[in-house]
Amino acid sequence: MLRLTRSARATLIGIVIFILIFMYTPLFVLILNSFNSSQISGWPIEEFSTKWWIFAKDYAPIRQALLNSVLVATGAMIIASILGTLFAFAMKGFDFFGKSTVNILIVLPIALPGIVTGVAFSNTYSNFLTPAGMNIGYFGMIVAHATFCIVMVSISYLVLQIVETIIRLVYTLNNIIASIVQSLEICMNILEILV
Length: 195
What we know:
Elements: H1 6-33, H2 51-58, H3 60-93, H4 99-111, H5 114-129, H6 137-194
Helix pairs in contact: 3-6, 4-6
C-alpha cells in the first residue's frame, strides 16, 4: 500500500481542501443570495426572505425545467451505467479487431470540451435530423448526456482495475526486494565463512 510522509499527506489534504473551497464557494454564495429579498443580488444580504423560493415553487416553467432535468438525468444515468460497464468489461477482458479505435471513440467525448460536444449534437439535431423529419426530443438530450456519462462509468471501472494492478505490482516488488535482501544476506554469510 502507498504510504505518504506527513508533509506529503498534509500537502495533498491542503490541495484538496483548496480545490473544494474553490469549487463550492460560488455555490454557497448563490444559495445564500437566493434568500436575499432584493431584486438585485448584493453583498452582504440586508434582508433575508424566502420569496424567491416561493416564486420558483409556484412558477410553472421552473417546475417544468426541473422535471425535464430529472428525466434526462435519469435516462442518461441508466444508459451510461449499462453501456459504460459493458464497455469497461469489453476493454478489460477481450482482444478484438479495432479495440483501440473503439476505445478512442468512447473516450473522445471527455477529451473534447463539453461545449464542443454540445454544439456538435445541437448542430446534428437541428441541421440534419430535424429537417429529415426525425424529432429527437427527450431521446436526443438523453443520448447527448449519456455519451459523456458512459466515459465516466467506464473510466471509473478501469481506474479501479489500474489501482488493483498497481497494488499487485507493489506487492510483487516487495517480494522481489525481500528476495534480493535474503540473497545478499546469504552471500554475506558465505563471504564471512570464506574469510
